[in-house]
Amino acid sequence: MLKRVERVREILPPGVDGILVTQPQNRRWVSGFTGSSGIAIIGRTGQPVFLTDFRYTEQAGMQCQGYRIVKQGDKAEEDICAIARDLGIKRLAFEKDHVSVAYYEKLSEGLPGIELAGLEDKIIELRAVKEAEEIEVLAQAAAIADKAFAHILGFLRPGLTERQVALELERYMQDLGADGASFEIIVASGPRSAMPHGVASERVLGNNEFVKMDFGCVYKGYCSDMTRTVVLGKADDKQKEIYNIVLAAQEAALAGLRAGITGKEADALARDVIEGKGYGENFGHGLGHGVGLAIHELPSASRLIDKPLPANSVVTVEPGVYLPGWGGVRIEDMVVVLEEGIRNLTSSPKELIEI
């Protein structure tokens, strides 16, 4: 963890002597702490400190390697003030994207003589570039989702509700060692499959219709994310047409992705295929997003983003076509972006499956 501490120190702006890290995923990334309450305090020099209450001091001592552990007293602000002075911090940064006005006011009153400086979330940018160990955990999380998809193919049948399918996916992933789902599972069937984020409802699955399933799990703190769309019964010509357009778009994106292209350029790899078939207006979201300790993090593969994708980032590749009142298709893999190409962490088949 001390290597990550050094990386955080490098992003501190001039005149700032240290930072409070409170955002849960940032805190875990920089300290190793998996509990729900605590603050990492990192100065430009000196040993970093982890402040937590009685419930978590033993856990923090085991997980926060290289940190000095301080048990929180009755007023956390007094502890923070004492730690900051001990570290020689006169100007202390906080994560302004994650700190409430009420907490900022409490800090302002409780840290006399220490100036507070709001800092944009730069740690999330550091998290975008994954270490080898992180990639392997993400690969394991993706493998659990792949196994859940193989399992659900034998479970799907007319008469089940979307909610029953979602619950079975989550149950099976937990049986395989997952902590739980990485987000509220999307199971959208028939006309509801036109809803990009149509979370599972009580709708009953019918014959000869799409079933779109977007799901993933949390494993050792890291998330997975995949989508597959199948037909429960026999696909008609329109279903085959839309499915094959989305599949061609995804394959084009997977073939063209590499480190250094911008999010906008990555998005265009798939969007150009869909627009060329006349369905550009029916692909209303971006190509993909970063995945790690959070299900949505940097980098972004979107037509709105001009920033390049860094090597060793992990992103989703998930084009879709959605026709209101009829249905929709999305196909999503999770990939590691490399200097030359990708490593696909999702291995589930992508040919149109008819059940």
Count of DSSP strands: 19
Q: What is the arithmetic mean of pLDDT?
A: 97
**Secondary structure category:** alpha+beta
Query: Could you say which overall geometry the principal axes of the C-alpha atoms support?
Result: elongated
CATH level 3 topology of the largest domain: Creatine Amidinohydrolase
Distance between the termini: 47 Å
Say what oligomer this is.
single chain
Please outline the helices and strands.
Layout: H1 2-11, E1 18-21, H2 24-31, E2 39-43, E3 49-52, H3 57-63, E4 68-71, H4 76-86, E5 91-95, H5 101-110, E6 115-119, H6 123-128, H7 132-153, H8 162-175, E7 180-181, E8 186-189, E9 209-215, E10 217-219, E11 222-223, E12 226-232, H9 237-256, H10 263-276, E13 288-290, E14 297-301, E15 314-317, E16 320-323, E17 327-330, E18 333-338, E19 341-344
Parallel strand pairs: 1-5, 3-4, 5-6
Antiparallel strand pairs: 1-2, 2-3, 7-10, 8-9, 9-12, 10-11, 13-14, 15-18, 16-17, 18-19
Helix pairs in contact: 7-8, 9-10
